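Model: Ready when you are.
Researcher: Fold this.
Model:
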Amino acid sequence: MFTKIKIIGVSFFVGSIIGVTLNALDLPIQQKYDITIENGAFTVFEFPFTVKKPLTSGFLIDANSTEIKEMNKKNTKVTVDPRTKRQVTKKAKIIQIKQGKRTLTFLPKARGEFQLIVWGYKKFPLMFNIKVMDSLQKKDSGFESHYNFLDYSEDEKLAKKFEFDPHEKVIVKLIRSIYNKKIPPGYKSTRDAREFSDDIFDYTLNFSFVGKKYIVEEWLLKNKTNQEIKLYEELFLNDGVYAVSFENDISSPHLITRMFLVRKRSNKNKGI
């Protein structure tokens, strides 16, 4: 399927939509972090560099003696050495840490705290104070399962290079990127719960790619009427919007159509 991009009176054409996106909490790279992870659940740290073998401190268990004994019973295994025929007692690790090329995956088995040092970043080591808590202990919005650590200084350089082309060419590249759900170099993928309605459509902001000078957004437009509606780019070319494109030029009754907007980065408008 092909669709137009309206850029202040100029039309272009781009291709079809493919791909997926991943949800993660993005954090800027800094020297020290305090992070809380969930007991008994997997948590992933993802880095923009190759991780060298991390250093960890001893795990300080936050539990009374009865809980410690129960934990030791569950995590202790007795096996028989086939060569010597003797019993061998193995205690499972209180926390398992699996290292990937650019990831660390944690699976804690008890509440407590530990420290972690991650090497591989070119400027300094990343130092973590990590607290493990049960889900009932955390009173706020809950736990994150995926942390994505980003070097925004490098992203800014990449975004500036991506945006160096003429204005119209950058817009076409941004629309193609969001069609394919492929984040442009140096851009950051974000989500928020922005949504509102009028007499014809329900509008939901699905996600955005944010760069140095531009923001490109994917909106979901649900037709609330019983009629087909012809979509015109000019309806959405307000202040700060550089370009508009639709998945389909016709919005069918009670169905969702995707709309793509390219904005000026400094635009503060919370609507469309």
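Researcher: Now this one.
Model:
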Amino acid sequence: MTTEAGDVDERRTYAVVGSTGKATTCYLLDHVLAALGRSTALFSTVEIRVGAEHTPVERDSRPDMTALLERADVARIDDTILELRWPELTAGAAGDRRIDVAVFTDLDPEVEGDDLGARLDLAADLLRRAGRAIVLVDDEAGAALARRVPGAVTVGTRSKGPDADWQLSVNASRVDHIDFTITHRTGRSVSTSLWIPTRFTAGFAALALVAVLETGITGSMIGRVLPKGMRPVVPGRIERVADHPRCVVDISHNPFRLRRALVPLRHTTRGRLVVVVAARGTDTPQTRRQIGAAAAHADSIVVTDDDYGPEDDPAAIRADVIAGAREAGARSVSEVSPRSIAIRGAVALAGRDDTVLVAGRGHLTWLRSGDTREHLDDREEVRAGIAQRDGRHAGSG
């Protein structure tokens, strides 16, 4: 099969590593490669996919990467995309597999803590062994990593950041998409749109584009196969589930990710910004309060439940989140349990120009409550809330 990528039988393996944005970058990369006519396999924290076969991945599961790679090889998949977490890197889960292109997103001190240095070493080792290394240099770890990896191709998204081989510039930021350009230091550039309305996701889109461009794809090819821009569906990662009100589901389960999701949504919301938020039973009281403080970027906060074990007190967990929100100055804070009622209520009561962010679980579809495990998909609950809202408005008309 001849593809836009040119070579009939050249197969590649891509790997993505970092603290955040790995799954999003993998899906963006998959989106671009599929548009180029390439068959793809994907190993991520969201799903395992080989061609048209999909297997969902739940929280804390450890799928067999060796089996995925074997399936991709048997199916003669063109491009295999691996989201590599730190345990998998430590265990050498990719084995002797040649990584043609390795991509680094970031290393966040809040997320990595005392493991920051060790994980920088793991990332450096992976990128040095890859055929081509692509490094986002927006943070200190990225800049340090680029210095440690000879020949690394650097990507920057900040105008006052380090000098980079490819630089992203945002041309327009709209309610439903971002127009941007990536420009190489030689002057060649690619302009496109990303239909995910968060500035940080544009950086991940730039990484995905550069990873493909550095294999020989031209900017004109990208423009030809993506004439309306990049329109990926990234399950549970700033996933837009409904409009009017705009309802977004995101995996943002820690303070850093929650702030990073809320701030750009605040800038593109005409009405009120509402967040449905919770902490997990495994979170410390301090982290729970920090989650509440991060939620204070919203106009209205609905505190509910996430996973908790039989030894946990869900009311105490919610109380910690509420305390953190109020300490941060939040004025509108409510407590609603169970989670399904919290989501449906927040959506049903939202105004047409409001945004509702349902945070913490993303694509996950099973909720642990004490000794029980039940199906719960935030996206389904949002749709149920929309149905309630539409019914209420129809009744009042």
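Researcher: Key takeaway?
Model: The two ends are 56 Å apart (CA to CA).
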